[in-house]
């Protein structure tokens, strides 16, 4: 089943303007498929293929001879020195769409990459398949449970989906993250840390607490968190405390970005067993945040807001230093408005206030808060308020 990715339109536009574009995201998310769909004629090089790697022994000369063709370079973070070579090649012939770079690691964590092509490259993140990209054949509930990785989402059975996700997790733990960043990682430590993050999904991150539990130093824990985040597997949601009048929490929250991976790390076998599991509320919260992240504009940033007394917004949409919308995420389709939510509204006075549920109808409460379901919010509300 071919799923049209929303990012494709943006990428085609940027290919017409920028000499190079980068498509970044976790492994197995569909970057190669999307990159090849952008153009009908191209030269494809995979940095995990020894034959392609051998072609780049003299990379400058090889790529210079391809100056009139589009070159797709996959897993480009495995050869970071390429970025410094691309700069003079681009400057010698600055035509749009020469290079499509595909990468599974955040440029900020690959030494020498993030600034080398400044002004010459457009960075774009390809997330797992989003709720608004689903074809009619796939139910929203299936997407929440299995997550958005194509192989897991489109598997014929839950068993096949679980098997793929389990293999994906093992691959990342035993090989992929260490290879992507060119560093040594302890697989058992990484697996235990990832599992702990899953059990504490949506909680405040306390590096010292993790360090004590894992028997390592806090800097080691923070380093592993950086790599999981740099591999697009973990999200750190920062707290909002600009111009605040009260004492606020200043530690970030952490989320497993893909709920399919979250549910496998928690060993939840099927959608029905998700209900009644203590992690279901945090799972839904992280799912909503991730879907909003995929559709937000670059001008909109995401935060949470919590006072020392416990009053909280699950999600705050901010532009510049101005909160524009506060969101409470509820699993119940008949939610009540909490006192803490009202208190936070008085603190920040955002223009818009929402409670997002799985399937409720859209209506206004007496406090002028809009209650709505996630799909309606993504398709009809979010585009209007950004």
UniProtKB/TrEMBL annotation:
Cross-referenced Pfam families: AAA_14, DUF4143
GO-annotated molecular function: ATP binding
Ranges for domain AAA+ ATPase: 17-115
SMART domains with a match to the protein in the record: AAA
Keyword annotations of the record: ATP-binding, Nucleotide-binding
Annotated coiled-coil segments of the chain: none
Gene3D superfamilies: P-loop containing nucleotide triphosphate hydrolases
InterPro entries registered for this protein in UniProt: AAA+_ATPase (IPR003593), AAA_14 (IPR041682), DUF4143 (IPR025420), P-loop_NTPase (IPR027417)
Signal peptide positions (record): none
The protein's name: ATP-binding protein
């Amino acid at each position: 089943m071919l799923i049209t990715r929303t990012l494709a339109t943006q990428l085609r536009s940027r290919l017409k303007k920028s000499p190079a574009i980068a498509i970044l995201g976790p492994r197995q998310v569909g970057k190669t498929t999307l990159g090849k769909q952008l153009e009908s004629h191209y030269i494809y090089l995979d940095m995990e293929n020894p034959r392609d790697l051998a072609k780049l022994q003299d990379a400058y000369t090889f790529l210079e001879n391809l100056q009139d063709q589009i070159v797709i370079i996959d897993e480009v973070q495995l050869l970071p020195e390429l970025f410094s070579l691309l700069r003079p090649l681009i400057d010698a012939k600055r035509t749009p769409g020469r290079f499509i770079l595909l990468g599974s690691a955040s440029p900020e964590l690959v030494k020498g990459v993030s600034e080398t092509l400044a002004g010459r490259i457009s960075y774009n993140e390809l997330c797992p398949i989003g709720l608004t990209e689903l074809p009619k054949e796939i139910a929203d509930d299936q997407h929440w449970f299995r997550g958005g990785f194509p192989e897991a989402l489109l598997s014929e059975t839950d068993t096949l989906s679980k098997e793929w996700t389990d293999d994906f997790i093992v691959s990342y733990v035993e090989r992929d993250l260490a290879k992507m960043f060119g560093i040594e990682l302890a697989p058992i430590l990484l697996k235990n840390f990832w599992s702990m993050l899953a059990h504490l999904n949506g909680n405040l991150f306390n590096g010292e607490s993790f360090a004590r539990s894992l028997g390592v130093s806090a800097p080691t824990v923070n380093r592993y968190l950086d790599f999981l985040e740099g591999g697009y597997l973990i999200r750190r949601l920062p707290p909002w405390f600009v111009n605040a009048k009260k004492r606020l929490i200043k530690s970030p929250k952490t989320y497993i970005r893909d709920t399919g991976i979250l549910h496998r790390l928690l060993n939840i076998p099927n959608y029905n067993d998700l209900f009644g599991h203590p992690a279901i509320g945090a799972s839904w919260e992280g799912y909503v945040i991730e879907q909003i992240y995929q559709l937000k504009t670059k001008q909109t940033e995401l935060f949470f807001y919590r006072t020392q007394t416990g009053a909280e917004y699950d999600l705050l949409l901010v532009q510049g230093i101005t909160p524009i919308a506060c969101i409470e995420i509820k699993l119940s389709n008949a939610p009540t408005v909490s006192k803490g939510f009202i208190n936070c509204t008085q603190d920040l006075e955002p223009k818009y206030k929402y409670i997002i549920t799985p399937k409720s109808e859209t209506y206004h409460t007496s406090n002028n808060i809009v209650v709505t379901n996630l799909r309606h919010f993504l398709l009809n509300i979010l585009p209007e308020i950004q």
